[in-house]
Amino acid sequence: PYEVLVVGQGPAGCAAAIYLARKGINTGLVGERFGGQVLDTLGIENIVSIPYTEGPRFAAALEEHVNAYEIDVITSQVATALVPPSEPGGLFTVNFGDDASLRARSVVVATGARWRNMGVPGEQEYRNKGVTYCPHCDGPLFKGKDVAVIGGGNSGIEAAIDLAGITRHVTVLEFMPECKADDILLDKVRSLPNVTIITNARTTEVLGDGSRVTGLGYVDRATDEARTVEIAGVFVQIGLLPNTEWLKGTLDLTPRGDIVSDPRGATSVEGVLAAGDCSSTPYKQIVVAQGSGAAAGLSAWDYLIRTKAP
Ligand code: FAD
Q1: CB of 80 within 8 A of CB of 97?
Q2: What are phi and psi of 49, to 5 degrees?
Q3: What are the FAD/NAD(P)-binding domain coordinates in residue numbering (predicted)?
Q4: Which residue(s) pair with 172 in the sheet?
Q5: Residue 85 and residue 106: Cα distance in Å, rounded?
Q6: What single-letter DSSP state applies at residue 64?
Q7: Residue having the nearest C-alpha atom to atom 15 of ligand 1
Q8: Which residue's CA is minimally distant from atom 26 of ligand 1?
């Protein structure tokens, strides 16, 4: 068994594993694919001290850093259950499918999250060519242009407020007859001259010229009329889903599925730490995930030195 098993090989999991290995802890780092969500992105401009990098290059750098230590890396494994020890301080078991498992005295969960897609034609084709999911990451790429935000919940309206300060005009498309965001955010967005909110809008298609997004098709659900808006970018804000389904019933989760965790990464089960986009740490960003991964790694070490094995 390992002293600590880190599940998830994105920025958070890699940070936790490196911090643990640097303390001489016998560490396993297991996951589905090395690098995490950054593999799906092209330009990254907000890793502080790295003015520009690209997703695959950043993932390769993460891997090189991890490989500089004696960390046992196991890829292409999807965790399906976490089983706590029968006595305090004992071994946790992490199951992978029906017949594989790994054991460790402490577990760091860093399985990240995934953006909910619109599921309309053009969305995948124009990903990173105008279709984006992260205003903090890609907002500046659309400086002075017209953009759309899909979703009138809190994250969509926050995105619209953010983008109104950077882009020329923002159109918010909300499926329901009313936006669900908090009143304070709606008051703010309605006060902005360059934001238009369209409710009852069912997005049907992302339009493009083959290399870039040029517009968006939607149906007005009240009249059944098909319409288009000309825009250069679409920010999809209809939900970030944490990869925590496998932990239901074992760890306390928030209503939206994030693992309830404190600033040290401590969860509802002693010896299990959480970090990054799967945890309740606010702001889903690379540097934030790395910071919380470092904290979770140090907390796992702290748990080991303070707990007696049975
Ligand atoms: P993740 O990166 O999600 O890594 C988690 C890993 O765990 C994944 O490899 C996943 O496959 C694996 N996993 C999931 N479930 C299981 C399981 N059951 N068993 C085993 N493994 C599992 N942030 C920025 O700061 N700047 C940017 O420019 C930026 N651009 C982005 C662009 C896109 C298109 C996307 C999608 C995200 C972007 N982000 C950006 C957000 C950033 O990528 C995330 O905040 C960050 O990757 C979170 O790191 P993480 O380690 O918590 O999780």
Answers
A1: yes
A2: 95, -10
A3: 2-293
A4: 149, 197
A5: 10
A6: H
A7: 111
A8: 137
Six token digits for residue 16: 């936790």
Q: What number does the ligand 1 atom closest to the CA of 33 have?
A: 9
**Domain boundaries along the sequence of the chain:** 2-114+240-306, 117-236
Rounded Cα gap, residues 200 and 123, in angstroms: 20
Alpha carbon distance 236, 74 (integer Å): 33
Candidate from 18, 37, 95 with most ligand 1 atoms within 8 A of CB, to mutate: 37
Mean pLDDT value across the chain: 97
ipTM above 0.85, yes or no: yes
Q: Is 271 left (phi over 0), alpha (psi -120 to 50) or beta?
A: left
**Token couple for 137:** 């990451």
> Where does ligand 1 bind, in terms of residues with CB under 6 Å?
7-13, 31-33, 36-38, 40-41, 44, 46, 78-79, 110-113, 115, 133-134, 137, 243, 246, 276-277, 284-286, 289
> Which is it for the CA torsion 163, 165, 166, 169, positive or negative?
positive
Q: Does domain 117-236 have CATH number 3.50.50.60?
A: yes
310, pLDDT greater than 90: no
φ/ψ of 228, rounded to 5, equals -135, 155
Which CATH superfamily, name and number, covers 2-114+240-306?
Answer: FAD/NAD(P)-binding domain (3.50.50.60)
